[in-house]
Every structure is written in C-alpha cells, then in structure tokens.
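Consider the tokenized backbone below.
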C-alpha cells in the first residue's frame, strides 16, 4: 500500500494582524509569529503583544490552522 505524504504549509504571520489573516485565508496549515517580549530575528520588527497573541491563537484555531 502506497501512502502519499502531503507537506504542511507554514507561513510567517508578519506584522499583526493583516499578514496572519492573509496567510490563514490563503490556506496556510500553520503560521509562525513573534511576541513583543521575545528576542530573536524579529526583535526589531512589529511583533504581537499579549492581547494580539491571544487573538491570533483563537483566530487560527477557529479556522483549523496552527499557530507557532
């Protein structure tokens, strides 16, 4: 029996909330986003605050998308 493996589409959430909405609407299986209090590559970018992060999680999960 042959099983086809379909890759998962992971998209950047970008600046809140427009890019996240666009990624999920375009069919992303999951999005990744940065928090305002986390360092890393996006430390100088516009990141998600606590309230925006909570909204992003609810938005993604309501549409069967993951949020990382």
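A designed sequence for it:
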């Amino acid at each position: 029996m042959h099983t086809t493996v379909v890759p998962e589409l992971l998209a950047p959430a970008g600046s809140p909330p427009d890019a996240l909405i666009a990624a999920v609407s375009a069919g992303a299986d999951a999005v990744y986003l940065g928090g305002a209090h986390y360092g890393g590559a996006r430390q100088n970018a516009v990141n998600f605050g606590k309230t925006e992060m909570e909204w992003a999680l609810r938005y993604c999960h309501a549409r069967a998308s993951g949020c990382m």
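The two ends are 33 Å apart (CA to CA).
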